[in-house]
Amino acid sequence: MKFLDWWAILHPAIAVVVIYPILGVVLRQAWLTRQRRLSPSDAKSKIPVSVGQEHSQAGRWLTTGVVIVSLLGIGYPIFSKFVEVGAAEFTGGTARLVALILAWVGSLVAIATLFLIRPKTPRDLRLPRALFAILTGFGVVALGQQPEVFKRDYEALVSHYYYGIILVLLMIFALATLPEIQRFPRWRILHIVLNIAAAALFLGQGVTGARDLLEIPLSWQKPTIYQCDFQNLVCPGQPPT
């Protein structure tokens, strides 16, 4: 395996080893937090008071991890294309690549800043939270819209890319509005509804991601694989089925 092949598996490897275990922790703590909130005020709960704070902290790490792994997945086809074809054949040349790298790094800085912001009340740091949430979301979407990124537009309803973009935006929104979620019941209900959708998208990402891995050849296999007729499902030298 070459360097680009190892880079290709970074996205799914981190998702499996890091993101989904954290997701399990977040979902478990979310359930316990909800159970504690719904328990009678005069009853002694076995669920510790700290579970809500632990859920919030794990959610911060989950959101940040999701954005990072998404940027890795989006960055791979862009930068690998540049390596394969060279600056002369790459659309926009070196100048475009530099601009994309700056956008990629800027998105990482934005999500890191959003992670580090610790407002004590819903009124605190509203503008910075909104600003860095918008910058992060815009960066991910803008990079994802590059022509080198495969989107499966012909099957958008089962697209790993579109599921991922929606999931990233939902997670960023949850992180940016964390003080409101902790303080106001209506925000909490909205958070629950949106994150039930996010949990379903995580499930979809697991399935569509595994499917897409089967379709990505190693770098030395690409010249042969890409000669295949993907409409009629035949390759050179292979008789039609």
UniProtKB/TrEMBL annotation:
Keyword Transmembrane helix: yes
Residue ranges of the TM segments: 6-27, 61-79, 99-117, 129-146, 161-178, 190-210
Pfam families: DUF4079
Keywords on record: Membrane, Transmembrane, Transmembrane helix
InterPro entries per record: DUF4079 (IPR025067)
Protein known as: DUF4079 domain-containing protein
Organism of origin: Synechococcus elongatus PCC 11801
